[in-house]
Amino acid sequence: MRTRVLIAGLAAVGLVAACAPAQNTPAAGGGDEKTGTVRVWLFDEANRAPKEAAVKEAIAEFKAAHSGVEVDVQWIPVEGRADKFSGAFNDPASAPDVAEFGNTDVSSYAATGALADLTGDLSSWKEGADILPAVLETAKSGGKTYGLPWFTGIRALYYRTDLFAELGLKPPTTLAELTETAKTIRAKKPELYGISVGGKYTYAMLPFLWAHGGEIAKQDGGKWKSTMDSEQAKAGVTAYANLLKADICPPEQCANLTGTQSITAFAGGKAGMSIGGDFNRKAVEAGQVKGKYAIIPLPGTEAGKIAPAFAGGNLLGVFNATKRKSLAVEFTELLGGAKYQEKMYVAMGNLPTLGSVQQKLAASDPSVKPFVDTLTAGTKFVPATAAWSKIDAQNVLPTAIQQIATGGKDPAAALTAAAAEMNKAFG
Amino acid sequence: MVTKEIPRTTAPAVPARRSPRRRRDGRAALLYLAPGGILLLAMLVYPIYQLVLISFYDYGQPQAVGNAPLVFLGFGNYVELLENLQFWEVLAKTLGFTAVCVVGSLALGTGLAVLATRVRAWARVPLFLAALAAWATPAMAGSYVWLFLFDADFGLVNEVLSGLGFTGMANHSWTFDTYSTFGLVAAEVIWCSFPFVMVTMYAGLKGVPEEVIEAAYLDGASTWRTTWSITLPMVRPLLTIATIQSIIWDFKIFTQIYVMTNGGGVAGRNLVLNVFAYQQAFAGQEYGLGAALGVVMTLLLLSITGLYVRSQRRSAGWV
């Protein structure tokens, strides 16, 4: 009996030592066929119809210019994107030719080698020079560009004009004033949140962090190191966490809110203010507060300054394994070009990434102005490393915000723990 | 007179004659077992083998697609996991949560099964229909229904409670406090898992022959005594199965926690192991670490059920 166990044990050790886990072979460079079907993955949206209409128009134009070419669009749910993209990376045969993805995922996707380097294609594209440099930065990983910026997501301050008039309030000019204004609203109208923001709304917290002079992480000799434990970061995160208090947005309701849920509360008339993106405007327009709100850039720590916003946004990228490389790139350039960026703005409210289109829209549509002003004032981005996707998935920053907001940990302890977690992910 | 010698026959060569048959039996048995065996090898043994293998490597998405070299870590992933304080905290919460869910669904299920054997059909049928409806509700739908019922602003429960005079309950958030959240999720889990226990135990109770009970009464046994000494030992095998099933299910809860606590509650204080594994390892594409956690969970579950089965065997002599 004992020998049998011993043999079995030795065999097990041998198996483990001798074999390595299954790996797929790296996606080989595809082909360059000029006919056939171009497969495209785009994100599904809460209200997809206008997006779908704009995309269909682009497809019709593309098909008219290329005979024998079909375009097949699949709508990918944003929440389930990790599984879908992992599947595409593992099995290049089932991967699309063109895909839309968030710019915070670029580094981790690029690390799999599945995305084509578009640096050359974009520099030879006639509209390529028009892409705003700060926005183009968010499509890069390790110096190479892996996507065409399709639209930019910039967040600003939404507030209720009717409520401000009734209570005799003025739009805040500093972050400290914003906190005071929010307290006044909640004190006079206890059924409303002073400002609806949430513990899981990282992108609303980041401007507070940056406005106070903090940074998420710094790169030193190619290695990232978290700076969330600095004094400036502590001041910024604490200022944001202080909004999640009983006298503004009670933690019982707000500590676990995401960005979408925060905006939903504002659109439903439950809050005096909120932080939302250009892409949220359609949802707010569809809510009870239609016509009763205005948008201004989120103020900084001093009057007259704008808090640096997170340069969010989505890209259109091409997969390495594509069998129709030039068709895929051409379709990307058509859908990401000036004509369809403008159509997508009309359809979804997405802020264009091309300077000329942005200027044109800002001149004709005043509601774009706060977002363009915020963008011009300077934006920032999350650390451009594959580790960011992991830090994001593990809820490192939301956990710290929630711990501070609920008093579970004091700011220094919560942020030191968060910095340690991040450094572990950076490796 | 010559007595005829009785020819001495050699003792029948029993082993020699039975051996081919036994061999044939063995072959037939193998043949019958083969489909199941192959399925088991392909669907269980191989994946577990891969799981264990992956757990010894630094294995992320770049490694899975072959774009980065494999690095053998030995027990590195396990050390990282066991050194993580949050893992122990989540493990303790998972064990407590599982215990509450298992005891709750067993108590409710068995209680209602006893009730079902005592009432007439007109009462039993609605009871079973209600239980089956709860059982058939998908975990996702059930979780959302419970969330709506207990919603802070629009939930029926708060409305009823404040209507009854508990005005403090208006706008009360059930999913904020750690224990209140776990309690709510546990209630939902018990609600959707007691029907299995109830149906199983009802079948078991119905299977106890009436003659035996009658005989016990004739011998002067009290109801209590009959329950403990006659009924319980007879339904013990089924009770054991129901318990093991409940332990396995409740230890691996994912959907209810993920949906009802918005992915683990405020600051992750309502995480259970499965959700923790998903968040730490799979969403973050750290498959090596996730595999190590999977192996640890499997071993834990095997030892918990193993210990339980052994204790049952000892106390009842049941195999």
From TrEMBL, chain B:
<comment type="similarity">
    <text>Belongs to the binding-protein-dependent transport system permease family.</text>
</comment>
<protein>
    <submittedName>
        <fullName>Sugar ABC transporter permease</fullName>
    </submittedName>
</protein>
<keyword id="KW-0812">Transmembrane</keyword>
<feature type="compositionally biased region" description="Low complexity">
    <location>
        <begin position="8"/>
        <end position="17"/>
    </location>
</feature>
<keyword id="KW-0813">Transport</keyword>
<feature type="transmembrane region" description="Helical">
    <location>
        <begin position="127"/>
        <end position="149"/>
    </location>
</feature>
<feature type="transmembrane region" description="Helical">
    <location>
        <begin position="95"/>
        <end position="115"/>
    </location>
</feature>
<dbReference type="GO" id="GO:0055085">
    <property type="term" value="P:transmembrane transport"/>
</dbReference>
<dbReference type="GO" id="GO:0005886">
    <property type="term" value="C:plasma membrane"/>
</dbReference>
<keyword id="KW-1133">Transmembrane helix</keyword>
<dbReference type="InterPro" id="IPR000515">
    <property type="entry name" value="MetI-like"/>
</dbReference>
<keyword id="KW-1003">Cell membrane</keyword>
<dbReference type="InterPro" id="IPR035906">
    <property type="entry name" value="MetI-like_sf"/>
</dbReference>
<dbReference type="InterPro" id="IPR050809">
    <property type="entry name" value="UgpAE/MalFG_permease"/>
</dbReference>
<feature type="transmembrane region" description="Helical">
    <location>
        <begin position="287"/>
        <end position="309"/>
    </location>
</feature>
<feature type="domain" description="ABC transmembrane type-1">
    <location>
        <begin position="91"/>
        <end position="308"/>
    </location>
</feature>
<dbReference type="Pfam" id="PF00528">
    <property type="entry name" value="BPD_transp_1"/>
</dbReference>
<feature type="transmembrane region" description="Helical">
    <location>
        <begin position="28"/>
        <end position="49"/>
    </location>
</feature>
<feature type="transmembrane region" description="Helical">
    <location>
        <begin position="226"/>
        <end position="248"/>
    </location>
</feature>
<feature type="region of interest" description="Disordered">
    <location>
        <begin position="1"/>
        <end position="21"/>
    </location>
</feature>
<feature type="transmembrane region" description="Helical">
    <location>
        <begin position="182"/>
        <end position="205"/>
    </location>
</feature>
<keyword id="KW-0472">Membrane</keyword>
